[in-house]
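ok trying again, last paste got cut off:
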Amino acid sequence: MESDFQRPASLRPNRRADRANQNSHTREVEGFPFSPEKLQVYPVKMLCRMGIIRLVFVAGIIWMMLILCALLFHVWSCQSSFAFFSAICNRQSKVFLMLDTMGLVPKAQHRCSIPLAYNPDRVSIPKGMTPEDVVRDLSFVMEDDPLNNTSQSTPLFGGRQTWKQREESFKLEPSMKVHCGFIRNGGAEMDPIDIEYVKKCRFVVASGIFDGYDLPHQPSNISPRSKKLFCFLMVVDEESLSFIKSNTTVSEDDDGGIWVGIWRLILLKNSPYDEPRRNGKVPKILTHRLFPQTQYSIWIDGKMELIVDPLLILERYLWREKNTFAIAQHKHHRSIYEEADANKRRKRYARPLIDLHMKIYKYEGMEPWNSMKGNPSDVPEGAIIIREHTHINNLFCCLWFNEVNLFTPRDQLSFGYVVYRLGGSFKFFMFPNCEYNSIFVLHPHTREHSSKIEWVKNLSEFEGKGSSLKESRGGLGLWTPYPGNLKTVVLPPVARTSKAG
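nice, full thing came through this time. structure:
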């Protein structure tokens, strides 16, 4: 027999093909997936696998959409006017900060450039005072009417103004005499050294610290011309003076004046009120009474650091457009009733007394702000006030202070009301809030203000054992019988426009 090696190549068995056929037959026998028996099972498994993948993919998309919706809801809640939703917003949270970094948080225009003159040395100062058109002579009540001083012998700083006297004070005459604080022996006395010093101050940057809440912050960007032109006067009470001496460098000049950097400290002895916030309104609103020789003044709150040259401020807000009084618009509110609601929520004063204050204003015809009023807002940011000390401006400040003296110390609630009562005779420039925020750097208080009256929820807490909550020298209009029926007064509804509001 011939061996395989001797056979022609064409006659040799195709062993590779045989093995392939054998393996194929074996796989078919063993049930390979592509075997006829399995051809119908394979599509079902594939569909199951594809279905699971699709399900996971869809679930992932839905989950991402839910997260996105939650993030968008978080952003919306911060802008919501609904108290519940806006209350859950936390601008310091990691979520909010992440969204802010991604640019998903709506940006409010917090600061903007101020159209200032370029060079303080080239600012032209007007000669003389602005002509008086409405009030040509203004004097002040210095003592209480004896008929009104029978119930208590101690004089009150704001006097015991009657409802009739208050009503008469809003009727403009060429010559007027009104209550304007500083009733003789009513408190807030200046040292004779300081009285002599401020007599030379025609231009004043004024500020105040009461009850030791702040330390003086040195202004920056002050030109040499402004340093010579302006007196920088920081009004303090006795507690704040002790606090400042203990916590910062204080110097004394040859005349006995006390200084912290550029600020001359002006001590007011015998604080006129129980409430520190009400004491702070004395230099803020009655600047013309403390510094009677002053022609122009710029008030800034004690927690602020001025970063704009005061001469440029006067040029921008007064002289350029021939204004005599300028104040910033409130960031959130235009209606005093909105501001009152915010004060109650933030416990800035006793809630029932704020309501009583607003009911009196509503009874006397004060309507919520609307665009027909002609003013940008009824609510200012009172931390910066720029004014020329004209008679009409001084009268306005007296009437404004009388409201603070009679009712609550929240002066933003009274500003728009006095504007309304003067019927357009008081002209003022209310500038954008973003410019207001560009004038200063805001520093935190050294401690938070707190008083028992802020937590009062109803008038009954002022009775009996809780009667000590009632201020003895301020807010007396809230405890004097009002000559009108306030029971029928319904306060306007208020809708929140922002979380901060």
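cool. Confidence is low (pLDDT under 50) at residues 1-13, 22-34, 78-92. Residues 42-79 form the longest helix (38 residues).
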